[in-house]
């Protein structure tokens, strides 16, 4: 069954249309990458999947339900942003626990889940620190931990590695691929980096000017004669 469906999705800002009649079906457990040059509409489309952006026309469904009809907490989605979006005054523990605290999850369970997720991502030594005391890669891991702890059905990543140096980027790319496998989620990942797309994607959605230019496996897109 399809995890995410876009049906005739349109997005305009005033007179400017940035997504045009976009149709797409993403299967459960698929890793889909939105690839394309800056300004082609990748982030806008991802934010519409997340329900963070109003849709000007058409419909986005997640798990068979229209996304705008769902309560934000019930969408089963977690998003990781390029700039990490951590709370600077909170400890790493509290950053990771934030969503669970808001859901009034019991304290003991929060403690146990934060520790489990932190162990998976190698963050356990840093739980008492503030974000500014961590490296970029560690901060990105906190952002991923905060998303993971919600046990989402769908993981959305918006250029998560752009602010990291090349070595960390390679390392985190492998980690993200491993997390997708082990958590068995559906993942949608936005990048303008062809290497990231080719190494991560089951399918690449190549966007240009708000339309799908091409869609297929990395081999179908890059190894055509
Ligand atoms: P990408 O992620 O591919 O770089 P975006 O989705 O961020 O592209 O942007 C697509 C287009 O929509 C761009 O031309 C951008 O200028 C425009 N855009 C994005 N957000 C807004 C906004 N809030 N108001 C007006 N135009 C916007
Ligand atoms: P409260 O939620 O009332 O602030 P808690 O008993 O949940 O109190 O925890 C107190 C604080 O200690 C947390 O907010 C968190 O910042 C920190 N904390 C809890 N567990 C750990 C841990 N394993 N490592 C580091 N800091 C922790």
From TrEMBL:
Record keywords, A-Z: ATP-binding, Nucleotide-binding, Transport
Q: Does the keyword Nucleotide-binding apply?
A: yes
Domain called ABC transporter: residue spans: 4-225
- GO MF entry, a single one: ATP binding
Q: Which domain of life is it from?
A: Bacteria
- Record bears the keyword Metal-binding: no
Family (UniProt): Belongs to the ABC transporter superfamily.
What name does this protein carry? Sn-glycerol-3-phosphate ABC transporter ATP-binding protein UgpC
Q: Species name for this entry?
A: Mesorhizobium qingshengii
Which start and end residues of the full protein are shown?
Answer: 1 to 225 of 362
